[in-house]
What does this fold into?
Amino acid sequence: MTRHPTTIDDESLIAALRLASGNDPVPAQVTAAARAVFGLRLPGADTARPVVTSAPQGVRSTEEPRLLRFVAAGLTVELEVTSLDGLVDLAGQISPCPGAGTLVEIRTPHLTESRPLSPTGQFAVTGLPPGWFSVVCHRPESLPVVTSWTRIRP
It folds into this structure.
């Protein structure tokens, strides 16, 4: 004897989905992650948007660094991203250099690394976990400039 699955009409399926959705609470880790990301927002900051960059000419290595550029509020944030052993190194330059007292933060959903900006506008952070990151430039007596969130893959 062959058994065929019973068919269900669209209305019954939608009713079953509505019932099921009311009984499935949001997992605690999802709620915690949402609160953590919400805490990373910077109201009033100028958002630096990505700009397309061209690949360097004449590079033979297949392990070339990833180059990123963001622009906003008269500043350009240039980043060189390299990966080694599953971790990410980030070297950057902000131009024109905002001057003394400028602090740069490299943020991930799980950690924030702060660095003073060099007199030439450069900074670096090594050993970051792969995943989402954003860079914030805190200038004295100005609103911060924050890059849009970008995903780094090793």
Remarks:
- The two ends are 55 Å apart (CA to CA).
- The mean pLDDT is 85.
- The longest strand covers residues 75-84.
